[in-house]
Amino acid sequence: MSLAQPTTPAAPSQPAIPSELLERILLARVADLDTLFEQDDIRAAVGGFAPSYLLVALPKSSSTFCTKVLAHILRGDVYKDIVVQDRFTPKDLQVASIVNRRDRITVSQVHLVATGANLRILKNFRIPAVILLRNLFDIVVSLRDHMEVNEFFSSILIPNKYSSLSKSDKEDYIIDTAVPWMVTFFVSWVQAIERGDIETEFVFYEDMISDPVPFFRKSCQCLGVSVTAEEVTAAIDKVEKSPTTRFNVGKAGRGASELTANQIARIRRHADYYPGIDFRPLGL
Question: Are 104 and 76 in contact (CB under 8 A)?
Fold first, then answer.
């Protein structure tokens, strides 16, 4: 396998990396990365990569908006292809995508479960991540509306006749299919943090819509970067002026008021399978 050097010139602090080292990284199995990265020349090569930052988010948490703001603050490119881009498969990090964008600062928005493979990639490539959460009841009703106008949703199939279902049936479908995935998402990151597999923190959609400046400053701190309130404000202003920015402010508490008592109980039931996990960050 051969790999062309980046078309964008490397910064002076990022000397060209021998293609032989890049090929060794690309040909390695993810399961073998820990052993591979014990080699000094591999660690030195990857140490020359431009920084890559990850916003790991629950769906319908304004992660697209957050990613754009972070990209402005961190002077990076929004990079979507760090994970496999397929509508209905789990989203997993790709080593080749990290290697191929090694010459640019990138900020990626992902709906990513903390699998062993994903954690191994983050650790060895030294990619910091921050985890964006939102009240789970609110996500359900927001996702219900999202599916009305969007043909696809990550990780689950939308029924062909979704639009003809009743409001209650739409919510039931999401509770039966999407909620288990979102609970798995949350639990996987809680357990990864508790095991010491990653150092990160949770940040919250509700904090972002109520007071965005401290929210983004904390998010950047989790990514290892200290920024001023002025830098955050300037970045938010730039993103909000963009005609392509999607930022729909959801009303906090909407889910608890629109879902039935039975539906709320069923959502809580999914959390009952994980005793010892504190689900209060999801509003449960």
Answer: yes
